[in-house]
Amino acid sequence: MDSALEAEDLHMTFLNRFLQFSENITQHEPVKVTIVGGGATGVELAAELYATVDRLEQYGVHRLHHNSLQVDIIEATERILPVLPEALAKKAQSTLEELGVRIQTNRTVKGVNANKLMIDDQEISADLIVWAAGVKAPKFLADLDLPTNRINQIEVKNNLQVVGHDQIYAIGDCAFLLQDNDCPVPATAQAAHQMAKVCADNIAAQIRGKELNNFTYADHGTLVALSHFQAVGNLLDELLKRNWLVEGKVAHLAYVSLYRRHQIAIHGYGKTLWLILVNLLEKKVKPKLKLY
Ligand SMILES: Cc1cc2nc3c(=O)[nH]c(=O)nc-3n(C[C@H](O)[C@H](O)[C@H](O)COP(=O)(O)OP(=O)(O)OC[C@H]3O[C@@H](n4cnc5c(N)ncnc54)[C@H](O)[C@@H]3O)c2cc1C
After folding, report:
1. pLDDT for 94
2. Of 2, 38, 135, 193, which shows the fewest CB atoms inside 10 Å?
3. Residues of CATH 3.50.50.60 domain(s) within the chain?
4. Neighbouring residues of 198: CB distance < 8 A, sequence distance ≥ 6
5. Is 189 in the pocket of ligand 1 (CB under 6 A)?
6. Whose CA is nearest to atom 38 of ligand 1?
7. What burial class does residue 104 get, using C-beta atoms within 10 Å of its C-beta: 0-12 exposed, 13-18 middle, 19+ buried?
8. Which residue, by CA, sits nearest to atom 13 of ligand 1?
9. Does residue 41 line the site of ligand 1, with CB under 6 A?
10. What does R_g of the chain's alpha carbons equal in angstroms?
């Protein structure tokens, strides 16, 4: 999904399938959604889809229950949520399985068309297929005269200058930088945010002829919310050098506060306060589901 239009398309197709399911009393097969990739995006989406089924029922779409939806997650590695500690990934897995999600690990999708997936040697059909197996940087980056990797990210040095081009910097999702542990800096908002700060300082330093700083990624943790059913995550405490594993209400609270911090970074305290008030009001008066 690359655009709001594609998100709208997914939304409408999903709703239409359920309206058809609800109207057709002879249809006993559940609506099948297959998600490729058991990372945070795929896992959060799976839970949200079940929450949507609950809400549709509240809107008078009859004969719906969790059995009306069959979500399959296909994951190439041995477990879902590889970025989280195993105990938390297991907790998330059991929550999803209780909802009815089927999780297939160690399975690689080899081909896909509108309604079919080739998984290893098996072919399976689905009403909707969502690709949530990671992103690739745009193709035009590979066509620039800059060093790029397999997924079109631009290779940068520790100071975030593009390799071989000291006058160009690359940061965020489009930049490829290996850390000391040989893992690339992840394509996440927290990494992009940290890179932006170092990049701004380095541009100023370069103009003044001063020494540039090296970028070191500080992982502050990961939070995954399974709609209102569950939330899990780990928060890394720089001060105490501790890794806090959180779940349930605490994780949910951390998830919400992170979102608000993100809004503060973009809009400032004043506007964020207004946004909180607007959200509270909307919660009371706005429908929980967009049916058009
Ligand atoms: C579904 C989803 C969920 C995510 N959830 C999380 C999360 O919970 N936590 C987290 O840390 N990260 C998350 N991420 C990752 C996070 O969104 C990215 O890592 C972050 O946005 C990267 O910032 P960026 O500025 O590098 O790129 P972007 O935010 O993608 O910004 C790039 C901008 O450049 C514009 N652009 C592209 N090409 C051109 C061009 N040729 N000319 C001009 N403009 C152009 C784009 O339109 C876009 O506005 C998620 C990503 C996705 C897709």
Report:
1. 95
2. 2
3. 4-131, 140-207
4. 159, 160, 213, 214, 215
5. yes
6. 138
7. middle
8. 188
9. yes
10. 22
pLDDT tens-digit series, residues 46-64:
999 999 988 887 777 777 8
Our CA angle for 111, 117, 118, nearest 5°, is 55
Sign of CA dihedral 245, 247, 253, 257: positive
The low-confidence residues of the chain, meaning pLDDT below 50, are none
The answer, yes or no, to whether any atom of ligand 1 lies below 6 A from the CB of 149, is no
| 3-state secondary structure (DSSP) of residue 32 | strand
Task: Give the per-residue pLDDT at 66.
Answer: 85
* Integer CA distances (angstroms), 229 to 75, 144, 166, 225, in order: 22, 45, 49, 8
Q: What would the CATH number be for the domain defined by 4-131?
A: 3.50.50.60
Could you say which architecture CATH assigns to the domain 140-207?
3-Layer(bba) Sandwich (3.50)
The label of the residue with tokens 């975030």 reads: 160
Whose alpha carbon is nearest atom 17 of ligand 1? 189
Residue reference for tokens 């009306």: 68
Q: Which pTM does this prediction carry?
A: 0.84
> Tell me, what's the pLDDT at 200?
98
